Amino acid sequence: MPAASVSRAAAWMSGWLMLMVVIAVAGREATRELSVFQVMLLRSVLGLLMLWPLIRAAGGIQAMKTQRLPEHVARNVVHYAAQYGWFAALMLIPLAQLVALEFTMPIWSAALAVVFLGERMNRWKVLAVVLGLAGVAVIVRPAATGLNPGQLIALAAAVGFAVSVVMVKSLTRTDTALQLSFWMLVVQTVIGLVPALLVWQWPSAQAWGWVVVVAFCGTFSHYCFARAMQHADATVVVPMDFLRVPLTAAVGWAVYAERVDLFTALGVALILAGNLLNLRRANPVR
User: Fold this and answer.
1) Which of 91, 98, 177, 264 is the most exposed place for a label (fewest CB within 10 A)?
2) 138, 266 in Cβ contact below 8 A?
3) What residues contact residue 110 under an 8 Å CB cut-off, 6+ apart?
4) Which residues contact 178 (CB under 8 A, 6 or more apart)?
5) For residues 239 and 281, is the Cβ–Cβ distance under 8 A?
């Protein structure tokens, strides 16, 4: 297993962040024409093809064998449901708001990691998470406008992602990032085959382009995330993902003219403060 290193975890998380920002745009464009079920199936099938060179270099299918197949299946059933909610919410609420609501996830994942994985939650990690969630609350301001269906779907997806994160951390103790990515794509292809075929329509050339981008980002973002989790605790890695909120807000403004107001700017500042605190105070695992 790779040695613990916050700097290496941060490097892998930078890849995750970039790919997840791109997939938000590609996913929205793809689901304008295709159903979410179809986009998710094509993502998994194309992702397996894209991942094959790495699988072959690692020793082929033989190297993907695992002693923890039931855990992989359980993790991906939860992740598939959460991912469906995330894609569905893409068309219902602004990008920055979707990602901001997704970041109720760290409070769930941090608590679950402490309870089920035995990780330590020190005061600096707690403060980093609190600052990040405070920034999310300032951006979304649910008390001012109430929660609409898109927001509720996004919140439900966040809980599912939190469960998935904890299961990923547990799996990385015995399985490689490549094994996690392989079984994610295989299991989610099986899960999504029938629902996708029931609503199937042949994609246009433009839709194919967006689906290929979704598949690439979806496949290799999870590889980056799994590698990050091999280098640091979930309570260190997950708060780094807060940076996705300001990055996605910037993309939403640039691509879709979604407004970035004073509250968003304040929320971004809180989120950045939480990330910097988390990175400065995180102690290497010995």
Assistant:
1) 91
2) yes
3) 121, 125, 129, 234, 235, 238
4) 51, 54, 55, 58, 63, 64, 223
5) no
Can you spell out the DSSP letters for 23-65? HHHHHHHHTTTS-HHHHHHHHHHHHHHHHHHHHHHTTSGGGG-
> ∠ CA(176), CA(178), CA(184), 5° rounding?
105
Amino acid at 4: A
Per-residue pLDDT of the chain (286 residues; tens, 9 = 90+): 555 688 888 899 999 999 999 999 999 999 999 999 999 999 999 999 999 999 999 999 999 999 999 999 999 999 999 999 999 999 888 888 888 788 777 667 766 777 776 777 778 778 877 887 888 778 777 666 666 788 889 888 988 988 888 888 789 889 988 999 899 999 999 999 999 999 999 999 999 999 999 999 988 887 888 888 888 877 778 778 878 888 888 899 899 988 877 877 888 788 778 777 765 655 444 3
pTM for the full model? 0.79
Are 184 and 79 contacting, i.e. CB atoms less than 8 angstroms apart?
yes
